[in-house]
Amino acid sequence: MIAAILLAAGESTRMEEPKQLLDWRGQPLVAAQVSALLEAGCRPVVVVLGAHDRQVRAAIPSRADVQTTTNRNWRAGRATSIRAGARAVPSSVDAVVVVSVDQPTDASVVGKLESALVRSPDAQIAVPLHHSRNGHPPIFHSRLLSELQRVTERQEGLRELRRRHAERTIFVEMDNPIVTLNLNTPDAYRRAIALL
Q: Residue 19 is part of which domain span?
């Protein structure tokens, strides 16, 4: 069983409008991300809210396997949202995928990462690659859930966690360029739409 943490608490200052609500294939980006994660079999999908809470919450599908948690400390950085999401994940899961709302994914990517982690019993983390370039989202074995619950900005969040477990990280080549997209600015969003 795999859970998903969808980080959707940011203010989107560079985008100049809430990234969570950008149109992505005919629906708000946050809803598209939730749909992709559900299609991949993630249960539950935990959406971490912060800035634009009310607007973003209204765009999230209302389902028993989709949960929301509010990070009231979202201004302090992404690590606070990772901690909030990880604390909401049940300890019974086998793995956790951590997805930023502005880094689109699809079900096939998550499925390949999960399969690779299952086939590699010593692995703790699986990371997608596209043309040998690191991509997203990473997936973490449930043994790392307690570490996800303690990440900090001072220690660079997931970067430090990945460095700590570098020898037990596997990389999975993907032919889908979606794993490299970051919708940080209007230009990046337009390029992503053109690419896909």
A: 2-195
